[in-house]
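@channel sequence for tomorrow's demo:
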Amino acid sequence: MEVRVVICLCVLLYCILLASSYQGTLLYSNFTSIMEFDIGTRNVTVLVEQSSRVYAMDYDFKHRFIYFPRYSKHDIVRFTYPSKNRTLQTVIQSLSYPLGIAVDSTNDHIYWVSQGSNRLARCNLDGSNVTVFSSLSNPFVIRLDLKNRYLV
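structure tokens (generated this afternoon):
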């Protein structure tokens, strides 16, 4: 019994030291906000807060934007990150309850799924050239596997 306790304490100490060596930030959302968690300082900063539900978001590494669909406002918006100016820019409007989103920075596309129309669609990063690909049954989440060129 004593040996197990000592081993558990050693593992716990190792994990604490390992976790304390991480640097950077974690972006996450709740229903109405997108927040940034600084791992080093453990500070939370609200980046965007608004009245529409946020079910998903994705980051465009190439152009440095966070994109997210606003479910009840029927649009997809973006803001520059990292930046002190967090003005929302509307990318595309008049969508039917957009839920999931995925950004393809390599090919400059946004993919999303909509609950109301049960569709998978794509447009350019600026909202132009909208293409509807398929009807789905109750879509909610979408992800890209850029290495293998798959939509998941």
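heads up for whoever presents: The domain at 54-151 is CATH 2.120.10.30 (Neuraminidase).
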